[in-house]
Amino acid sequence: MNRFTVLFFACSASLFGGSYTETLYPRWGQWLENTQTILEEKTESQDLIIFENPQFGRVFALDGAVQLTTADEPVYHEMMVHVPLLTHENPTSVLIIGGGDGGILRETLRHEGLKRIVLVEIDPSVIELSQKHLPSVSKGAFNDPRVEVVIDDGSKFVKNTKEKFDIILCDSTDPTGPAEVLFTSDFYKDCKKCLHKRGIFVNQNGVPFVQKDELILTWKNRSPHFKHVSYYLAPVPTYVGGSMAFGWASDKKYKPSLKKLQKRLSEIKGKMVYYTPAVHRSAFALPQFILDALEEKKD
Ligand code: SAM
User: Fold this and answer.
1) CATH class given for the domain over 3-69
2) CA distances in angstroms from 255 to 87, 198, 234, 262, 294, listed in the order given
3) Which residue from 63, 173, 194 has its CB within 8 A of the most atoms of ligand 1, so it is best to mutate?
């Protein structure tokens, strides 16, 4: 499609339909045609919009940043969940922080060996509105008897709970506003307290090519509390700027073989959209610019 056609669609969308411009980055960003606004409101803690886009399906954004689209959400949700859960020998309990849209919860529940999943979300409207307007994302996950939903700040929950988990998945917004506290050393110290010895922590760690500071921030704040801090990558088209990073932290060193991952995967019902054991292992291969960024900060 040439530039003029693109320009025509952009103008006509803003004239006749609508358009949504992400405000995550001050000097550049993605633009999405908005053919129908499903919902737009200010919740008690953030600005929320859900709208239709011809390329990505239903789009959900919070405070000017795309959280998910129904077209590419499986990439992110499968990689955040199945990489740690298929690596851990036999997880039975998972703590999800954030994740109010239910995508992480849906993928977590596919692991039938799990006995208890606690989801701690600061904004109840996200859960309520996602279930209503994005039903294909949570697919009824919030009604599973193994699930307990807690409305709280995740940092307060990990500080106060006496419970321990095998896995902690922090599916938060970026480190501004309510999520800023979820990228601090204090939070990681408390997460370590809430993990069993062989426990694994994974978080949404931004897009390193354009959010390198988030990588450095989590590297510095997590390294004092965990023996093994690393990252793995996946390309989520609407998390613009390159591959998305998932932060990994554990005390046990894990390096599951392809064979072992294939066997573990065979125990999961249903098809994957993105995850494969080979993708899992290769996702930990980091490009030079990330290795350099981490090297510079290894003081
Ligand atoms: N996958 C998305 C991404 O990569 O940006 C995140 C999806 S999910 C909608 C993010 C959730 O984190 C939001 O529902 C938000 O309310 C929640 N959140 C932000 N700060 C939080 C906190 N301190 N405690 C618990 N939940 C929080």
Assistant:
1) mainly beta
2) 8, 13, 18, 14, 21
3) 173
CA atoms lying within 13 Å on the CB side of residue 224: 11
Contacts of residues 180-183 at CB distance under 8 Å and 24 or more positions apart, as own/partner, are 181/153, 181/154, 181/155, 182/97, 182/98, 182/154, 182/155, 183/214, 183/217, 183/218, 183/221
Question: What is the CATH topology of the domain spanning 73-298?
Answer: Rossmann fold (3.40.50)
Quick: pLDDT tens for 17-61: 699 999 999 999 999 999 999 999 998 888 999 999 999 999 999
Q: For 96, how many CA atoms within 13 A lie in the half-sphere containing its CB?
A: 30
Q: What is the pTM of this model?
A: 0.94
Asked if residue 178 lies in contact with residue 46, where contact means CB atoms within 8 angstroms, the answer is: yes
Q: How far is the CA of 128 from the centre of ligand 1 (A)?
A: 14
Q: Which residues are catalytic?
A: 171
Indicate which residue's Cα is closest to atom 27 of ligand 1.
98
Domain boundaries of the chain, sorted by first residue: 3-69, 73-298
CA gap 246, 243 in Å, rounded = 10
127 CB within 6 A, ligand 1: no
The reply to whether ligand 1 has any atom less than 6 angstroms from the CB of 166 is no
Each residue's pLDDT tens digit, 154-200: 999 999 999 999 999 999 999 999 999 999 999 999 999 999 999 99
Q: Which atom of ligand 1 is nearest to the CA of 236?
A: 4
Which positions ≥6 away from 36 have C-beta within 8 Å? 17, 51, 52
